[in-house]
TrEMBL record:
The gene is rplU. Belongs to the bacterial ribosomal protein bL21 family. One of its GO terms (cellular component) is ribosome. PANTHER family: 50S RIBOSOMAL PROTEIN L21, LARGE RIBOSOMAL SUBUNIT PROTEIN BL21M. Pfam families: Ribosomal_L21p. This protein binds to 23S rRNA in the presence of protein L20. Keywords: Ribonucleoprotein, Ribosomal protein, RNA-binding, rRNA-binding. This is Large ribosomal subunit protein bL21. The keyword Chaperone does not apply. Part of the 50S ribosomal subunit. Contacts protein L20. One of its GO terms (biological process) is translation. GO terms for molecular function: rRNA binding; structural constituent of ribosome. Coiled coil: none annotated.
Length: 103
């Protein structure tokens, strides 16, 4: 059994007991989050695509961790001009564990 959900402008294929990192969501560690944007649902035999979402489908997850990723370096450079610029960026994320998929 799996589902495709949409959160943070991205789509994720999820299964029960799966742990994944998504864009930052509101909630503290241990709290429960519901995803209602279920784009596709499969129970192993039949696949139910949404139009645009599957009706009455809910994916429940628990927040495992709130954190920040490793630093990504952004380096801008223009040749022969003496222009160099370096910046760093650390993206916030929420690590979740999928508890249940129900329709």
């Amino acid at each position: 059994m799996y589902a495709v959900i949409r959160t943070g402008g991205k789509q994720y294929k999820v299964q029960e007991n799966q742990i994944l990192k998504v864009e930052k969501l509101a909630g503290t560690e241990g709290s429960e989050i519901e995803f209602n944007d279920v784009l596709l649902y499969s129970d192993g035999e039949t696949i139910t695509p949404g139009n645009p979402v599957v009706e009455n489908a809910v994916v429940r997850a628990h927040v495992v961790e709130q954190g920040r990723d490793k630093k990504q370096l952004v380096f801008k450079y223009k040749r022969r001009k003496g222009y160099r610029k370096m910046q760093g960026h650390r993206q916030h994320y929420t690590q979740i564990k999928i508890a249940s998929i129900s329709v």
